[in-house]
Amino acid sequence: MADLKIRTRDTGATARMEKGAMPVLSTPTGGQLDLVTGVSAPGFNPLDLLYASLAACLALSIRSAATRLGVTDRLGEVSAEVRGEKAAEGPSRVARIEAVLHIGGDFDDATRDQLIHMAEGICTVSNTLAGGPEIAVRRG
């Protein structure tokens, strides 16, 4: 029996903010992103990043689900639109997140629904958000 090789990636993020500046995010793998907070400023704010993480994970998970079903040859363009609603009362948080998945390709509605259901189970981000992970914040 062949050994299963699990690929891992060093994950995480660091936000650094110099006096009077906006935070700059970096990843252990060298990725970098500037944050914005202005209402009309182009770019990502912290909530956009939360929604973007879910959108990207669901889109990638559709492809994984198609592979598991053996239908990747029929899969077309995939898009995931994610939006959230902030809670009306404190503490400041997102009360509801909605994801709408568009799956192009030669599929009937039942197969599209199956791909979406499978993607929800595959996506680490949706599973994490649904489970309400423990968050530990401490002084460094």
UniProtKB/TrEMBL annotation:
InterPro entries: KH_dom-like_a/b, OsmC/Ohr_fam, OsmC/Ohrsf. Signal peptide: none annotated. This is Osmotically inducible protein OsmC.
